Amino acid sequence: MVKENLSNPGAAVFLAVLGAVLILMPGAAVSTLVRCFGLVLILIGTLKLVPQLRSKMRDAAGNAALVSSAVMVAAGFLVMLCPEKAASVFPMFAGIVILLVGIAHLMRAMEAKQAGDPASRMMLVFSVITIGCGALICLNPFSAVTTLVRIVGVILVYNGITGFWMEAKKI
What we know:
The protein is mainly α. The protein has seven helices and no strands.
């Protein structure tokens, strides 16, 4: 019997919608994502920095925490000021995430095959395609981030549709 996991039809629909947004607005999606990451760095760094500045203890650990917090805030501002540079990391990250999703689907397909599910063959095909797409992105990240974001969008739409289909076939 296939074990219960965290996937559900809502998550599949969310992936498909997210993929559509990435296809239609890749530049805006990347810029927004990178700027949000920069903002998170600034917020976390500030939340760690303020108590360090107020502290009267100045030992080595406190000084290290002070410096690391300041570096985190500075990194956040750099990300906000130069989102294109920070966005160059996105393709590899997306490829790794897609690869991991494909591996998770492959494990579900194997469980379905052991349970005698006739749909396990299609589940296996979908999983292998997802793994192949993730590996392609990891091995050959394209130079144009917007092109890659569109490809990731297509893969997410595909993954959302196949995930929804797999949920409908759940044992």
